[in-house]
Amino acid sequence: MKRGKAFTLIEVLVGVAILAILGLVIVQIITATLSASRMSNAGIDAAAQARLAFDRLGIDLAAMVRRPDIDFQSTSSFGAAPPYGLLFVSGVMAAGVGGTNNRGYSLVGYQVNVTTDTPTPCLLRGAIPIAWQGTNAVGVTGYETNGLPVSLTSIGVTLSLGDFDVLAPAVIRVVVGYQLYPSGNSVSLSDGTSLQALGQVVYSPPVRLDSEENPSSMTDLSCVSSLIVGVVAIDPDAVKRLKASEVAALAASFPVPSAGQYPVALWSPIAENASGLPAGVPLFARQSVRVFQRAFPINPYGAPRQ
């Protein structure tokens, strides 16, 4: 009789080892693919948050009332208390005033803060309507004869935290820069410094002069060609799993740029180095950080407004 052929124990063990190695390699490939997919999706979701913020801001700025007697208040810090990151009058509608008094003008503000609905800091937008007083409001405080407000300090309308709604829950940091016209003129900044306008970007807003020596608190947009807005966004799913302190620590890792710097140029190396971000923040959140920048022309005609 012929004996049947069979695998020896050593051959079976070798085969099992080879299958185990192949299985491990396949699992690693699948894990790496899923991780790359998650990272890609996180980046896409963060980009969508930044786009939402930029698009809304673009709408408000496009309808902004550009007059020398209308305040435009801004700060690079985007702190949680007034002055807000941006505060200006825009020709956008806001609920609250109806009938003939509502001409579509609103006081619009942006800030990074928490609300009862969002316990972690994020980008908020507020808008409150400004009612016109008619076309013959001579002598009415804060209004010219054409009914338009002349100063944020005299229109009798202010924004409170209750007027703000969440705009982009995963935008955790915003800075605003002011691209100066290369006019060569001397410009006074809100931090008390003066410089020659050579087309550089600065992060302390230029201010108007009440007199030859005394700058006012009103931002002077006549010497600004564009606003340079930089934002830091993370994956919306990641921010839901973070504490307010972790979001604040992550946002604080991205400083206000110095004069002449652009946000993306300064922030990109920080965002790309997840190990350099606060160790107390979970790795999945650090890896989802993305930085963006957009320029918004303020005076699009190529010369300072007179």
Low-confidence stretches: 97-101, 134-146, 301-306
Helix vs. strand class: alpha+beta
Order of strands side by side in the largest beta sheet? 1-2-3-4-5
Residue share in β-strands = 25-35%
Written description of the protein model:
This protein is of the alpha+beta class. The chain has one domain. Helices cover 26% and strands 26% of the residues. It contains 5 helices and 13 strands. It has a 5-stranded antiparallel beta sheet. The chain has a 4-stranded antiparallel beta sheet with strand order 9-6-12-13, with helices on both faces. The protein has a two-stranded antiparallel sheet with strand order 7-8. The protein is elongated, with a radius of gyration of 27 Å. The N and C termini lie far apart (111 Å).
Keywords:
single chain, 306 residues, alpha+beta, 13 strands, disordered C terminus
Brief summary of the model shown:
By secondary structure, the chain is an alpha+beta fold. The chain has one domain (39-297).
List the helices and strands and how they pair.
Elements: H1 9-62, E1 72-74, E2 86-90, E3 102-113, E4 122-131, E5 164-168, E6 171-180, E7 186-188, E8 194-196, E9 201-202, E10 207-209, E11 215-219, E12 224-233, H2 236-239, H3 244-252, H4 263-272, H5 283-286, E13 290-297
Antiparallel strand pairs: 1-2, 2-3, 3-4, 4-5, 6-9, 6-12, 7-8, 10-11, 12-13
